Predict the structure.
Amino acid sequence: MPSKDLYAVLELPHGAPATEVKKAYKRLARKVHPDLNPGDKNAEDRFKEISEAYAILTNPEKKKQYDAYGTAGPEPPTDPRVHFTGFDFDAGPVAGGFSDLFETILDHAHQGRSRGPAPGQDLVYPLTITIQEAFHGKKARIAVTHTVSCERCGGEGRLSPSRKRPCAKCGGTGKVGLSRGPFSFASVCKECGGTGKDPGEPCPACSGTGSREVRETVDVTIPPGVDTGSRIRLKGKGQAGLMGGPSGDLYIETHVRQDSQFAREGPHVRVHVPITYVEAVLGAKIEVPTLTGHALLKIPPGTQSGQVFRLKERGMPSLRHGPAGDLLVEVHLQTPRVVDERSKDLLREFGRLNPENPRGYTDPTEG
């Protein structure tokens, strides 16, 4: 590389970030590219100069060294075909414009990868269940649509090829090229997968895809303790693999429907239970609902509305064989509907015998 300041070559201040280097390179290259200035030796030299500066200043290690010491080490090799990394032409003398050229190059890069066995995609099947089914577990039978390998071609998409003949697409080289003006690009032949040998005729049974779509009924066991988002894996029940690769997996994803009585709180289950005024004041033993029936709960005297009692390990079972969650019983005082005068008199007498002011911000002697 000449001893010129690389940043000056790109008309940038010293130490400019790589993003600015790329912008400057694109801006200048549009002006001096040889194809846009045919026969102009100065433009060709200028383009090589900015390309070499760009190659160094977009390399993190070389840029770091150049910023610190003014040199990037050995000069980059000069390629008679012009470097075009990061280039973005809008138009030019090349047929279809440079934008079309680079789209073609990118298309070759994506499609020209080596053909070989590859695993199939996984599938996710949502399954809605009740909280009771999540607690007890469930056996379900579901219908799934997925692809399976074609039996006729073994999933390769091709009939038995003649390995003695070369690939007609690449002429037996295993690579295909693209060349326009000063640009050259080569990629793996997508027809033969880079082998250079005749890949054979497309399979008529699967139209060359290597797979066919089927609708299959599968049985799945939902273990006790699943939650919304839990997944059960069915190996090999996903999409078919490519070129004989293994099939993907099927994941049954559970979604627990909201329940009118029980609410899931992680491993715990909350239930709201009404209690009477007498039960709250004097205490009582009451039955509370659980996911396995009813359980007896002791309510101590003086229980307040909204108080929570915990029944150990009466909540959701653990998927990892640990202890189960708890049942959280939230009690709510149900105010009695007093209609007869005797009951009203008894309540007034109770108030006189048990004076109490639950509102500490007021004077108990008032009112």
User: Anything to note?
Assistant: Residues 6-78 form a domain with the Helix Hairpins fold (CATH 1.10.287.110). The longest helix spans residues 41-57. The radius of gyration is 38 Å.
